[in-house]
# Entry
Amino acid sequence: MNEKPIGIFDSGIGGLTVVRQLRKVLPNENIIYLGDTARLPYGSKSVDSIIQYSINNAEFLLSRGAKYLVVACYSSTSVALEILVQRFPVPIIGVIQPGVRKAAVLTRNRRVGVIGTSLTIFSGTYEKAFKAIDSQLQVMGRACPLFVPLVEEGWLEHEATEIICRAYLNPLKDDDVDTLLLGCTHYPLLMKAFRKVMGEINYVDAAVEIGVELADDLRTNNLLNSGGGGKLSIYLTDLSMNFKEIGERFLGEPMTTFSRVAIGV
Amino acid sequence: MNEKPIGIFDSGIGGLTVVRQLRKVLPNENIIYLGDTARLPYGSKSVDSIIQYSINNAEFLLSRGAKYLVVACYSSTSVALEILVQRFPVPIIGVIQPGVRKAAVLTRNRRVGVIGTSLTIFSGTYEKAFKAIDSQLQVMGRACPLFVPLVEEGWLEHEATEIICRAYLNPLKDDDVDTLLLGCTHYPLLMKAFRKVMGEINYVDAAVEIGVELADDLRTNNLLNSGGGGKLSIYLTDLSMNFKEIGERFLGEPMTTFSRVAIGV
# Structure
């Protein structure tokens, strides 16, 4: 039994969709979430900056006693995961590999579609991760920069959302992918719209797969908190006008305790 | 004659639409542009942070000899303009007041629509600025958070753009506004789509009005650079993957000289 918290960070509040999933599958675990809202979005920052911010974030969570780190930010996972793993003494899981492993298992025709923000897709990280598992997999990546603002606007089933989904996803449909990997924490909220365009294929939600792998790993390494706990602490580096409303949409429960902290300054 | 540069800052590269306009009406002026890309978007930051960042930006431009400051950022103008004016010894113009003055002159039925990002609209700054000129004006504000990502995606005449424009603008049409003030540096690129929805009403582009007022003011105060000059220097606090492509769309000319600088750290 280990009462220390799981530490999880993202550039903003999108990573709360991962927290939501972790609280479902690991209800006894204490969780510390750090959203670096003062410096979001990482996707428009340079690689150097993203690495520096990621190190700052990890250091903050470790200073709070984290026994395990979850990097819920796609930009950080793309460019900084290996550096964090080398630098820090706790196990670290990124937001990319669990979904990749699941998609590689699910696909029958070995054509997988991946959707994400521009940086995530253009970085080629997903392609590399898939190729490491199965060099014969065909990976079709599509950058979908309008999905995040659509989700934040709350237009989950708007007429415009369906048209934008078709514009982004039709090329993947034409390519006959049988598995779609959602490569951004915001995207699970658009599942209904994705299904309308892509039909009954396999959908892989990274947050679900992180929960599965993390639970396995905690169990194997005897790191589970089998006792009480279940405490969630949320830290944000800046508080915007509507973070609570949007955050609760991601988290699926009221945000009761949150604090503003200064990181890396 | 005064060869010192005009200093202009924005949270990102959207303010280059203002630079474009200044270079059109004041071709002899030297211009220094500072885009605080490392800390964008200001709209999701707290008021305290926006004030601090704005002071940092102004100090940088003054350290480079700016004779005049243009605050091309709506968030900064909303919450920090008065503080900057009190604090610094050069004339300072914001991005809000010139458009307001023009719209107040143009409207016949005294119903003006204003569109902008969420912070700009919800801050109430526009309403206050209009009321200071004419307390009888009816000001209808609409937050349009999807317009910026649409412009950055380059979907200026996409089917989705028209639907999103209708969703945002129809309430203003129903309210019978005869003048629409574009309260965001990105929006002039969507003019064609706006006209399709709103028809032949008055459109006010803040960048154009800043150019008019600035030229007047430089002339009146004998600050014009009547000699050669016409040099443009662009400073950004971080360089993202696609800043050059998007920046040139705003600027309307190639971005030849740009540097990365650290501000306020």
Remarks:
- The radius of gyration of chain A is 18 Å.
- DSSP finds eleven helices and ten strands in chain A.
- The first strand of chain A starts at residue 6 and ends at 10.
